[in-house]
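> run fold FAD-dependent oxidoreductase
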Amino acid sequence: MKIGVLGAGMAGLAAAALLARQGYAVTVLEKAFYPGGSAGFYMRKGKRFPAGATILFGLEPGGLLDELFRPLELGLRPRPLAHPMDVVLSDRTVRVLAGRDEWEQELRRAFPERGEAVLRFWRRLATIAESVHELTRAEPALPLRRAYQLGRLPVLLLRRPELAARLGRYSLWTVGQLLRRCGLEDYRPLREFLDLQLMDAAQVGAEQAALLPASLALDIYRRGSFALPGGTGELAEALEARLLADGGELRRREEALRLEPADGGGWVAVTRRGEHRFDAVVNATGRLELGLGQPDAAAASPPSEEADGSFGAEPLPETGLPGLPADVGGWGAVRLDLRLGAEAFAGTGAEPPPELAHGLPFAWQIKPSPANAALIGDLEGPVYATLHPEEDGERLLTVSAHAPAAGWTGLQRSEYAARKRELSRALREEAARVVPALRGMGEPAGEAGTPATYERFIGKARVGGTPMTVREAILRPRGLFSGQPRLYLAGESVYPGPGTLSSALSGGYAARAVMREQPLR
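> ok
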């Protein structure tokens, strides 16, 4: 049984590795050179840079990713993060902490004006999040079309019937509604904190974010957040290694341009190099139609580590992503990579109070100034900065933000270069709020990237998947069935939604569907 997987992002790699482990002949077709998509990495001048995601969830014993990948025996070495993040608001900083007691203490400290009300709100949110986590562990794949998509849900609801009532009660709520119910709708600091967290995790702010998935996204840090020594790209590499060890194949720089029905059933994937016939296909590209893309000469070779100019000195695409349905949500990303001497980070930022002395966080979410937010193109979302381990006496600081992908296509080269310079300045200015040494360092070596850069280097300009509104997440979630026989969907644009964890779960659901509907003989 030959299975084709289109796309080597987290969803595609998860589906491919799980299927190969069960004995399927799996071929992955990937447009980019490096695996992992926006959870992967790229190499530049001999240095390794994360493509996007940096914090992993679900790797605690019995966690969602731990359970999903247990059959694969990946041998990961996750490092728990006690202090994963600081969220820098307009007038204060909130330290996101892993310990439940420490987090409640931090809520009182960070929101002194309404501390007890905020604590009641968060406890209610955490109770809802626990129900969503238990539901997710039961492995239902929504929307339901087959009995096997229920997973272990019937058993769970028999054992814990109160979950059905709780999930049903809050199924159509937004986070904004819970704020109003708790009398906090007018408390700006908390709403600003929630908006920054949710714009990153759910692609929408508190007023629009569906409460059920948003509650888990907000409180999942209490279950554990993790970093890998090699970044999230290490997970992508481990999945690729397992795929290859189990007889699968990953064909880099070979994008599936279109799918055609094969005589006798199955599909033919057409690439620049030829055709591949498969008995079934998992489409994990994020392109949900059969015309999956057009030839792009810029993606036909791996990015050169010796190329002149900065990261992102690539030929500009003439148009946006071909054939991407207009109703698929998501953003592009802009970023700045800075390599600085380790001394630049000594004593960075305001020191935490003694009882919360965790030192530097792993990452920051920063509320940008109105002028910089307008320049970036996202008036509500955060600037996201991550501090990576020291290497050769330097530390890598990556600074990124969401931005409309369409705003970076179709530009004249001079206009594109000018916008990148302004973007670099804005991102650096925001990063200096948490790394003050940046203000007095002149122009440190840095490389900027835009949605056009992502299109070339990782194969897609849009990141983040479908916004998690009530409509998209609850009423009309996009499921794994394409409407075509033997063609399944996975990735951030289908259930359970955006993010590395959700993408991997969607790959697992697609793999399960293939195993149930296309069993090995």
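The longest strand covers residues 332-341.
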